Amino acid sequence: MKTYEDDSQSPDGWNVTSTLKLEDDGRFSYSEGWTDYTNASLSGGAAGTWRRGSGAIIFRAEEVYGTMYFPWAKGQELIARLQDDALDFGHGWTLRPPSPPSEYIVKTPVRNDGAVPLPPVLEPWGTRHTLAPGERVEVVAQGRWREGEPKVERRADSPVKPLARPPSPRFVPRTPSPELAALLRRWVEEVPTDGMINRLCKENDAIPLDCTEIYLWVLRTDGQVLGIDHESFAQRAEPEEDAEVAYGKIKAGARVHPELLELLPPHRGTP
Description:
The chain contains 3 helices and 16 strands. The two termini are 43 Å apart. By secondary structure, it is mainly beta. The strands form 4 sheets. The protein has an 8-stranded antiparallel sheet with strand order 1-2-3-4-5-6-7-8, with no helix packed on it. Strands 13-14-15-16 form a 4-stranded antiparallel sheet, sandwiched between helices. It folds into 3 domains: 2-95, NlpE, N-terminal domain (Lipocalin); 102-163, no CATH class; 178-268, no CATH class. Residues 156-165 have low confidence and may be disordered.
């Protein structure tokens, strides 16, 4: 398999991230995500077959879903000229192989100069090691990653509390009123049948709330928020348990359907 990527900006100011994967069996998959200055996000993709031509690679899309800037069209061929290791699709669209990550060794000394125990936390694993007052350790990170990682965050104002973030409360769905339940049922029935996002909504009897390059959040007619990893093979829908995430996605959906504000606690305000 060979991968090509691009991270650029569209003519109207969207930040666009593209990933194209060519399988050895002649299949390809393409995913695209874009965000703007308001942190709004949309995504789309395509899949089909590819073959080599004279100084070019020829793609034929069999499936196209979501919203994209890239000019994929179902049943049509798209030609990319080979330029060294890059694929030039024309009109300013060029995808290149990702640059290989470098080998880094980062040594970070940590000393507890306070009067109470200090619990440094190594993320994303959440590993903790309590330092007694005056104790010093050296944290060593070794591996391959992109330049600028890993990142070290220091909090000198409070040695303990910032590192001991309380867990987010668990999301408990609020039962929709009969009026909202009727609206939700109508909105589910009005969801189109084309595209990956619409298909996942139909399969889960839900309406879309928000979507990123990897994750889709939907709302069932009973008020439950579901999270779906739409890049995974199974695309399994799971109840969203984090209250901050769930309420945030309901607020995002309320930009389209203001009636969803009913499902927010009173102190959450408006989107």
